[in-house]
Design brief:
Chain lengths: 321, 257
C-alpha cells in the first residue's frame, strides 16, 4: 500500500534535479549546436570538414577575455569587446578559407581537411604563446549570476532544492537561438545567402551565372568563424577560457554535426542540443569520469544505426509508414 | 550590326589529343548562329572555352573587342555571356523562383558583408529581386510554378527554367548547349518560338545542337566542326550543299551502318 506512494515521491523529489540537468544540458547543447552549425556552413560550401572550427571558439573566448577582463588588457565594455572578438575570428577564418581556395585550390578534399588539422595546431600554438597555458576565468555578461526557481512544494515535497537558473546559461541559449534565426534568415531571405546555397549544390552552375565561388567560400569561413567566436565568448564565463578549450568543444560539435547528418542545418541544431542534454544526464546518473566519452559513444551508435544522421533516420521512418 | 564575339585561331589540346584546332569565326550582334558537327567534333570543348570553364591552349576569344579567353567564368558571365547546359545544371535544393533569383546575383547589390550586417535592407532587396525573377519566369512561361522545387519540374521545364536563369543575368550573348535534346516535338516547337522571342529582345544566340532540322530552320549562320577543325561556315543552305559537310555526315552514317 505504501510502496507506490513512496515511488511517486521519489520521482517527484528528483524533479528539481532533472530540470536542473535539463537546463544546464541545454546550455552546453546550445554551444555544441552552434559549433555544429559552423561545421555545416563550411562543409556545405566546400565539402571540407574544418577541424579548426573549435579554434574559432577558443579565439572568441580568449580575445573577449583579453579585451574585457585581462589585467594588462584595455578593459573594454563587453558590448565593444564581443564584436571585436568576432571580427578577429572572422579575419583568421577568412585567411584560412583563402589559403584553402587559392594556393591550394587544386588539392583534394582530404588534403584540405588535413590542412585544417594543421591550421588548428598552429592556432593552438599561437594562442598558448599569447595567453599562456593556464585557464583564465572570464567575467560573466550580466552582474546577476542567476535565479533560484522553487517548484511548488505540492510537487516535490517540502525540503526540495530549487532549480538554479544561471544568467550566463540564459545568455548562451539566447545567443544560440538568435544565431539559428539569423542564419535561417540569411540563407533563405538574402541574395548572398542564396548564392552560398547555390555554390553548395552546384559550383559549376553557380560560377557560370556569375557567382565568384572563391569569394563565397571565404565568406562561408568568415561566417563560420564568427558564429564559433560568439559561442566561445558566451561559454567562457561558464567553462573558463584556455588555449586548449577548442579541441574538445570542436570535437563535440563535430560529433553533433555528424549525428545531425553532415551538411544538415536543422539536424545539427537538434543533435547539438540532444548531445548536451544526454551528456549531462549520463555524467550524473552513470559516471562523470566518462562524461566526454558519451558524446562519442552516441556518435558511434548513431553511425551504426543511421550513417546519414538522425534526421535521415526519421525521414526514412516516415517514408516507410 | 557589329561583331559581338570573335574567335581567333582557337586551339585546345588534351594531352596531345587536339580537340579544337585553329578555329576562327565571329558572331554578329542580333543573329542566331549555330555550331554543328558529328559527335566528338569538339563542339562542347569550344563552348566551354567561350564560357571560360576551359582555358584555350592557344588562340583567343574577344567579346565586344575585349579579350576574355583568360578570364574566370564568373567574370565572363558578368560581361554579358550566359549559357545553359545539355544536362541542366540547376540548383536542385531551391524553388523555381529562387533559381532565377540567384541568377540576378550579378545584377543585385547585395554584397557579402553588407548582407551580414544590414539584414533588413537586404530583405527589401530580396523582395525586389523576386519580382524581377517572376518577370523572367513569365518570359519562359513558368511563372505559375514559381514556388515549386526545381527538382520536381519535368525535364523539359527544367530546361526552360535554366534559360530563364540565364536570361536573368541580362546577357547580350546566350550560349545554348543542346537545348533541344530530350524535348518532345511540342516542347521543341515552343523552344523555337522562345528562341525567336529572346533574339527579338536583343540577345544574340549561339547554339550547339544535334537536331539538324531545328538548326537549319532557325539559324542565320552555321559553323560546322569535324575532328576539331572548322570545315564550313555560312547560311544553312550553303552549308547543306557543302561537299565536306556532306562527307563528314555521310561518313559518320556509313560508319554506323
Amino acid at each position: 500500500m505504501t510502496e507506490p506512494v513512496y515511488a511517486r515521491k521519489r520521482i517527484m523529489g528528483n524533479l528539481p534535479d532533472i530540470l536542473q540537468l535539463l537546463f544546464t544540458g541545454l546550455a552546453v547543447g546550445s554551444i555544441y549546436a552552434i559549433i555544429a552549425v559552423g561545421f555545416t556552413v563550411i562543409f556545405s560550401s566546400t565539402q571540407v570538414v574544418n577541424f579548426a572550427q573549435g579554434e574559432f571558439v577558443m579565439i572568441g573566448a580568449l580575445v573577449s577575455y583579453w579585451l574585457v577582463g585581462a589585467e594588462h588588457g584595455p578593459h573594454l565594455p563587453l558590448l565593444l569587446a564581443l564584436p571585436l572578438a568576432v571580427l578577429t575570428a572572422m579575419f583568421v577564418g577568412s585567411a584560412l578559407g583563402w589559403v584553402l581556395m587559392r594556393p591550394l585550390k587544386d588539392a583534394s578534399v582530404t588534403t584540405l581537411i588535413i590542412i585544417t588539422v594543421g591550421a588548428s595546431m598552429l592556432m593552438h600554438g599561437i594562442a598558448s604563446m599569447l595567453w599562456g597555458k593556464d585557464p583564465v576565468s572570464v567575467t560573466a555578461f550580466s552582474k546577476t549570476s542567476g535565479y533560484s526557481l522553487y517548484l511548488p512544494a505540492a510537487l516535490t515535497g517540502p525540503d526540495a532544492y530549487p532549480v538554479y537558473i544561471g544568467t550566463q546559461e540564459l545568455w548562451v541559449m539566447g545567443l544560440a537561438a538568435l544565431i539559428v534565426l539569423l542564419l535561417t534568415f540569411f540563407f533563405n531571405k538574402t541574395m548572398v545567402g542564396k548564392a552560398m546555397r547555390a555554390v553548395s549544390v552546384n559550383r559549376h552552375g553557380a560560377r557560370l551565372i556569375g557567382i565568384n565561388v572563391s569569394r563565397m567560400v571565404v565568406g562561408a569561413f568568415a561566417l563560420s568563424a564568427a558564429i564559433g567566436a560568439i559561442a566561445g565568448a558566451a561559454i567562457a564565463p561558464i567553462s573558463m577560457a584556455s588555449y586548449g578549450m577548442g579541441t574538445m568543444l570542436g570535437l563535440k560539435g563535430f560529433a553533433a554535426a555528424i549525428v545531425g547528418g553532415l551538411g544538415n542545418f536543422p539536424g545539427s541544431v537538434i543533435a547539438g542540443l540532444l548531445l548536451g542534454i544526454m551528456e549531462n544526464f549520463s555524467a550524473t546518473y552513470i559516471s562523470s569520469q566518462y562524461k566526454d566519452a558519451f558524446a562519442f559513444i552516441i556518435l558511434l551508435v548513431v553511425l551504426v544505426i543511421s550513417p546519414n544522421g538522425i534526421v535521415a533516420l526519421f525521414r526514412r521512418r516516415r517514408a516507410r509508414a | 550590326m557589329t561583331t559581338l564575339l570573335d574567335v581567333k585561331n582557337l586551339t585546345r589540346a588534351f594531352d596531345g589529343l587536339i580537340a579544337v584546332s585553329d578555329v576562327s569565326f565571329s558572331i554578329t550582334g542580333g543573329q542566331i548562329k549555330a555550331l554543328i558537327g558529328p559527335n566528338g567534333a569538339g563542339k562542347s570543348t569550344l563552348l566551354n572555352m567561350v564560357s571560360g570553364t576551359l582555358p584555350p591552349t592557344s588562340g583567343l576569344i574577344a567579346y565586344q573587342g575585349r579579350v576574355i579567353s583568360n578570364r574566370p567564368p564568373h567574370r565572363i558571365a558578368g560581361y554579358g555571356i550566359a549559357r545553359t547546359f545539355q544536362n541542366v545544371e540547376l540548383f536542385m535544393n531551391m524553388t523555381v523562383a529562387e533559381n532565377v533569383m540567384v541568377g540576378r546575383h550579378l545584377r543585385s547589390r547585395g554584397m557579402l558583408f553588407s548582407a551580414m550586417f544590414r539584414l533588413f535592407g537586404t530583405a527589401a532587396e530580396e523582395r525586389r529581386v523576386r519580382e524581377d525573377a517572376l518577370r523572367f519566369l513569365e518570359r519562359v512561361g513558368l511563372h505559375d510554378q514559381a514556388d515549386t522545387p526545381a527538382s520536381e519540374l519535368p525535364f523539359g521545364r527544367q530546361r526552360l527554367l535554366e534559360i530563364a536563369r540565364a536570361l536573368a543575368t541580362e546577357p547580350r550573348l546566350l550560349l545554348l548547349d543542346e537545348a533541344a535534346s530530350g524535348l518532345s516535338t511540342r516542347e521543341k516547337r515552343d523552344l523555337v518560338s522562345l528562341i525567336y522571342a529572346i533574339r527579338d529582345a536583343g540577345v544574340t544566340i549561339f547554339m550547339v545542337d544535334h537536331d539538324m532540322d531545328l538548326v537549319m530552320s532557325i539559324s542565320d549562320e552555321v559553323v560546322v566542326l569535324d575532328h576539331g577543325e572548322k570545315i564550313a561556315e555560312g547560311t544553312p543552305t550553303d552549308v547543306q550543299h557543302d561537299e565536306r559537310v556532306i562527307a563528314a555526315y555521310l561518313g559518320e552514317e556509313a560508319a554506323h551502318a
